[in-house]
Specification:
Elements: E1 5-8, H1 12-24, E2 35-38, E3 43-44, E4 47-48, H2 49-56, E5 72-75, H3 78-82, E6 87-90, H4 97-104, E7 113-116, E8 121-124, E9 127-130, H5 131-139, E10 143-147, H6 152-156, E11 161-166, H7 170-180, E12 185-190, H8 193-216, H9 220-241, H10 253-264, H11 267-278, H12 282-289, H13 296-310, H14 318-328, H15 335-338
Parallel strand pairs: 1-2, 1-6, 2-5, 6-7, 7-10, 11-12
Antiparallel strand pairs: 3-4, 8-9, 10-11
Length: 340
């Protein structure tokens, strides 16, 4: 049976992924060669972004300079993008998942399966839910997760890196590995959806800390300390709330490698550094620096703080708590080392 892949999202990371997926479906007989990509329609220089992508085979707004395969077809209608798909790739900001699932419910094949490339969690009054759980519960389908040390532009340029797929059903994990694995985008699969997913969400908080250290010019030793403490708190949080999370997951690309690269580069680090050097708020810098993309480290820090404070656990996670207070309570950035 032929599998048909659809991409839900077309930002910087979504477009980089589209380049990989569009190429890989040609390497296997069991994939349909057309890959539809849902694009939130917007105007760029007086033209629809979907029209530009389909004509120029380039996302000129979110991934300029990178050509996409001709079999990747941009579509502004979410349901039309996904209605015939058997494999859904979710790559939108986590705030939009609920509305996407609401629109897709009842409009996808029964044999569909999903993978989330989203780094975040859904927080509500009861606590938090993983994005894979949201997808599974909303759509009644199984969901894997992909996360790793994957700065989108470097992936799109074909530079060597690794990533991790977490699965519950091994056949799903292997099938999605076929979709994503290339010689320069090396995929490993692990039976730990929760661990992979939490690493992807929590590391964005620590990256804010890495950027604050850079802005303060505190040096390599301090940054290494923040990364180590951050990894410790990520592991502690994950295993406190989910007993089945495996230690080994934190040594995969989704764990320590992603934490290192996000603290060295990426939007969260960059904006946090600018917060120190300019004194501007994170909201203002997001608008000025990210070209419409979302800063996920600050929102995830807020989500985690709300969870920890409700449970009286802030004192057990001093780094995450301090980062939240710098972002939202005007705590001086130097507190990143004084209060942990």
């Amino acid at each position: 049976m032929s599998e048909k892949v659809a991409l839900i999202g077309s930002g910087n990371w979504g477009s980089a992924v589209a380049k990989i997926v569009g190429g890989n479906v040609h390497n296997f007989d069991h994939f349909d060669k057309e890959v539809k990509m849902w694009v939130f329609e917007e105007q760029v220089n007086g033209q629809n972004l979907t029209d530009i992508i389909n004509k120029e085979h380039e996302n000129v707004k979110y991934l300029p300079g990178i050509k996409l395969p001709a079999n990747v077809v941009a579509c502004p209608d979410l349901v039309q993008t996904c209605k015939d798909a058997t494999m859904l790739v979710f790559v939108v900001p986590h705030q939009f998942v609920h509305n996407v699932c609401r629109q897709l419910k009842g409009n996808i094949p029964a044999n569909c399966k999903a993978i989330s490339l989203i780094k975040g969690v859904d927080v509500n009054e009861q606590g938090f839910r993983l994005i894979t759980d949201m997808i599974q519960e909303s759509l009644g389908i199984r969901s894997c997760v992909l996360s790793g040390a994957n700065i989108a532009t470097e992936v799109a340029e074909g530079r060597f890196c690794e990533t991790t797929i977490g699965y519950r059903n091994k056949k799903d994990g292997e099938l999605f590995r076929d979709v994503f694995h290339t010689p320069n985008f090396r995929v490993s699969i692990v039976e730990d959806v929760i661990g992979v997913e939490l690493c992807g969400a929590l590391k964005n908080i620590i990256a804010i800390g890495g950027g604050l250290v850079d802005g303060l010019k505190l040096g390599a030793n301090t940054k290494a300390a923040i990364i180590r403490i951050g990894l410790w708190e990520m592991r502690k949080f994950s295993q406190m709330f989910y007993k089945d999370v495996k230690d080994v997951t934190f040594f995969e690309s989704c764990g320590v490698a992603d934490l290192i690269t996000t603290c060295a580069g990426g939007r969260n680090r960059k904006v946090a550094e600018a917060h120190v050097t300019t004194g501007k708020s994170f909201d203002q810098l997001e608008q000025e620096m990210l070209n419409g993309q979302k800063l996920q480290g600050t929102s995830t820090a807020k989500d985690m703080f709300n969870i920890l404070s409700k449970k009286g656990l802030c004192h057990e996670f001093p780094l995450m708590t301090t980062i939240y207070r710098i972002c939202y309570e005007d705590l001086p950035p130097i507190k990143i080392v004084e209060d942990i």
